[in-house]
Amino acid sequence: MSVLLVTGTSTEVGKTVVTAAVAAAALAAGRSVAVCKPGQTGIAPGEPGDLTEIERLSGVTRTSEFARYPDPLAPDTAARRAGLPELTLAETVAGIAALDDADLTLVEGAGGLLVRLGDFTLLDLAQKLDAPVLLVAAAGLGSLNHTELTTRALHSAGVRCAGVVIGSWPAEPDLAATCNRVDLPRVTGVDLVGAVPEGAGSWDRERFTAAAPGWFIADWSPFA
């Protein structure tokens, strides 16, 4: 099994759609894929969450969610407010290990790299699993700072960054977005391995899965 963790420079940068795109590209290459979302927040029991959207877009059928909290907050804070148990690193590692019959297991975090999923962050999880992290970044102003801060944190922790993906590339990019596409790899030392078109999350599965493999550079692979 190959494990790839997906995080963002912040919230609302397109992690879920990028995770779906990676899953769709791997499925198109004939590989089996599982997707894990350890902690889902802001969704009531029984409501569709991020995994439902990933299933709808990519066609992946094996997904796993370990905890769900109603408030749209960091998972540890949401757990405390709801009076529910926080996720632990040990149970999350065990849950991911249960998906080891898939060729690729994608693990989508919550918010940014250091958001606490319970008694741990996605960075802690990456270290424990010895797994690389794919970083989803915004296209416009502020992205250089946020992306460099996150890649520096990964490097300092000894965790490999598998690449940077722009989570929502605008149909009409402004000057900042155009420059960032050149400057992101320059300031981070990490390859820009893909960009997902703005609005792709609203597409149907047929259109999404047909296009997704082309959103990543030709020589990039999600397999470590």
TrEMBL record:
Pathway(s) this gene product operates in, as recorded in its UniProt entry: Cofactor biosynthesis; biotin biosynthesis; biotin from 7,8-diaminononanoate: step 1/2
Binding site for substrate: 41
Enzyme class, spelled out: ligase
Catalytic activity entry: (7R,8S)-7,8-diammoniononanoate + CO2 + ATP = (4R,5S)-dethiobiotin + ADP + phosphate + 3 H(+)
InterPro entries xref list: DTB_synth_BioD (IPR004472), P-loop_NTPase (IPR027417)
Sorted UniProt keywords: ATP-binding, Biotin biosynthesis, Cytoplasm, Ligase, Magnesium, Metal-binding, Nucleotide-binding
Gene Ontology MF: a single term: dethiobiotin synthase activity
Chief place of localization: cytoplasm
Keyword Nucleotidyltransferase: no
CDD domains: DTBS (cd03109)
Active site: 37
Residues reported in the UniProt entry to bind ATP: 12-17, 50, 108-111, 167-168, 198
Entries under Pfam families matching the protein: AAA_26 (PF13500)
Protein EC: 6.3.3.3
Transmembrane intervals: none
UniProt keyword annotation of Ligase present: yes
Subunit-level organization: Homodimer.
HAMAP family assigned: BioD
Biological role stated in the UniProt entry: Catalyzes a mechanistically unusual reaction, the ATP-dependent insertion of CO2 between the N7 and N8 nitrogen atoms of 7,8-diaminopelargonic acid (DAPA, also called 7,8-diammoniononanoate) to form a ureido ring.
Family that this chain belongs to: Belongs to the dethiobiotin synthetase family.
Protein name per Swiss-Prot or TrEMBL: ATP-dependent dethiobiotin synthetase BioD
Organism classification: Bacteria, Bacillati, Actinomycetota, Actinomycetes, Mycobacteriales
